[in-house]
Amino acid sequence: MNESKCPVPREQQPTNEFIELSKSSIFSLPKTKKSLIFVLLKFWVGAFILFLVISSGSIYFRTSILKYVLLSFFTSLSIPFLISIRLYIGWDHVFKRLTSERVEYEESGWYDGQVWIKPLVLKEKESLIASIEVKPILKNLIQTLSIILVFALSGILLFQYYNF
Fold first, then answer.
1. Is 17 part of a structural domain of the chain?
2. Domain for residue 4, yes or no?
């Protein structure tokens, strides 16, 4: 954005928000599907081990080791699910700001919100960034969330309808 014409503070400009999010070590993970899945698998394995240790203290599960392991396996999916949700929320926020015709911003605090209408050139530039850069990231995150949900729902159905 042209600094002289744009009243929006630099850190609240959608293009700059996109750049900052892209530089972030956590939010840059979904740029490639392989890196996202690899990191989520590491969190899943770590959570599985942690949940395995936590659930090992239960007297109820000492009778069935299979149920004990499967419960830890499926409940540990909650950690990658929450991480994926947080990544999706952040990237979706930037996507909406990039594709919006208006930019909402605060000059000094939450109580003085302003709205600035983007010029056509800037709107086209940011729409291009949103469609080329951010939309594939959102698609990766939706696919990843879908896979996690399928595993989690299969675990719920397994525990609901199968007696160990």
1. yes
2. no
CA-closest candidate to residue 18, choices 116, 112, 132, 121: 132
pLDDT tens, position by position, 42-91: 999 999 999 998 888 877 777 788 888 888 999 999 999 999 999 999 99
Helix axes 14-23, 120-129, angle to 10 degrees: 20
The whole-model pTM stands at 0.88
Is 60 within a domain? yes
Say if 23 falls within a structural domain: yes
Q: Name the residue range of residue 149's domain.
A: 11-161
Burial (Cβ within 10 Å: 0-12, 13-18, ≥19) of residue 141: buried
Task: Work out how many domains the chain is built from and give that number.
Answer: 1
* Average pLDDT for the chain: 90
